[in-house]
Amino acid sequence: MSHVPRHAEDIPALTGIRGIAAFAVFIAHAGFWQVNPAFAAPARFFHWHGQAVDLFFVLSGFILCHVYGAVPTKGWGSFFLARIARIYPLHLLVLFYCVLGIWLGFYKEVWDSELFWKQFFLVNLWPGFFTISKWNAPQWSISVEWFCYIFIFQAAALLASFFKGPRLVPILILFAFLVVNALQVYLWKSPYLDLTRGLLGFSAGIALYHSAIAFPVLRSAAVRIADVLGLAWLILMILGGLNVSTFDWMIPLFPFLILGLTEGKSLTARLFSSSFFIWFGNISYAVYLIHYPLLKTLQDTGVRDFASQMSLPWQAAYVFAVILMVISLSHLIYYQFEKPSRFAIRRVGSFFGKFLAR
Description:
Elements: H1 13-30, H2 40-43, H3 49-68, H4 76-104, H5 113-120, H6 139-162, H7 168-187, H8 193-214, H9 216-224, H10 226-241, H11 250-260, H12 267-272, H13 275-282, H14 284-300, H15 303-308, H16 312-357
Helix pairs in contact: 1-3, 1-13, 1-14, 3-8, 3-11, 4-6, 4-14, 4-16, 6-7, 6-8, 7-8, 8-9, 9-11, 10-11, 14-16
């Protein structure tokens, strides 16, 4: 167990864990308690949506290193093409849905051309471009993710070209610390705090990957106690949902849980590697990005308010219908739009790459 296995398909549990994290964000934003206060108590067990986003950032940094290594072997052009194919098609689809809703009046937001272009290019959370967007609340993290692709992953790759083996780990950890703290001079307790969170989580994911390479015992230990880590995560969910403890204790647990899931030996890893969780993980980006506009449409068109006037059985049916709608549309979008779009962009990019190489 001297290294982390390469290629994303070798660690399916990390795909599976994204599904439950995206679902937590969806349920926390759903506001079912506004339909009936009785729905507030069960929903609280999913109110670790902020911590779920932190998990996404750590996973992203780790997975990119896992797939591409310290430096993309096929070049940065191929790397950025794959990243664009991964995040941009669905981002644009949802953005244009919001625009259409604003223009037609069923999405009660104010048209802002400057905000539109900042969101279009995914720079709305970048320093110098920051603009608060209420069009699609989760979109901020995609802007931060894009920033990390362009700047943080390249900076980490540059460090990796100068430092090798165990020496790289403390350098990367120091790098993550300096990036965040240098920004916090003027970002702390400001709107840019979300950018800071993303930079820290993404950098921590990169450092985690190199730590596992340099110190195999770290990963071996995490794999052996993966079920303990999974149980601890579940306990923190329950305690947080009961308001006994804070969900923030999940954050230091996440890096070790990620390492623990890199092998499928534990019950926890086998659970998240099951066909259900793999499917749930595959549609997680769609769940994450489309749920807010759909929920807002139901609110702005008065459907949610209408449901709140119904009897409890019909209110429960409404909640079930909303969950089913988001999951079904996410499934449809992933298989009929995301995957074909991703394939088409990569194919076009490959064609032009070969054409230019002539």
